Structures are given as structure tokens and as C-alpha cells.
Amino acid sequence: MLYLSNASKLKSIAATIVGSFSQIIATLLFGLAGSIYYIYHYDVVGAPSASPGFRKN
User: Fold this and answer.
1) What is the pLDDT of residues 14-55, one digit of tens each?
2) Facing residues of 40 across strands?
3) Dihedral, CA atoms, 26, 54, 42, 29, nearest 10 degrees?
4) DSSP H/E element including 49
5) H-type helices in 1-57, by residue range?
6) Nearest to 24 by CA among 14, 13, 16, 12
């Protein structure tokens, strides 16, 4: 962005913002999916154990 003309700078700034926003959305969606999978498949709520969260149901 440093060596671009002013018109190109605006386009590159917009592309950077769109790319960053897309990345955060993908991170949140896959993180939510992973969290739901983890909570559904592993015992994270209930009686305490020696290694909570790593015990198969």
C-alpha cells in the first residue's frame, strides 16, 4: 500500500478490510462449530474427573 497511487491505495485498503472481515467470520464460524462438536462429544459438564473434557461418553 505504501508505493501505490492514491486510487490504488483506496482499492487496496478496501480489499484489506474485506479480507480481514472474511477471515474473522471464517474463524468465528469454524471455532463455533468446533466448540459445539467438542461439547457434544466430550463430557465437559458434570462430575469432576482427573482429566475433565477428555473422557468419552
Assistant:
1) 999 999 999 999 999 999 999 888 878 876 665 455 555 555
2) none
3) 0
4) none
5) 6-41
6) 16
Contact (CB, 8 A) for 21 and 28: no
Q: Supply 45's cell numbers.
A: 459438564
In this predicted model, which residue has the larger pLDDT, 26 or 6?
26
34 vs 53: CA distance, rounded Å: 14
C-alpha 13/C-alpha 6 separation (Å) is: 11
| DSSP reduced 3-state for 44 | coil
pTM of the model: 0.61
Q: How far apart are CA 44 and CA 48, in angstroms?
A: 9
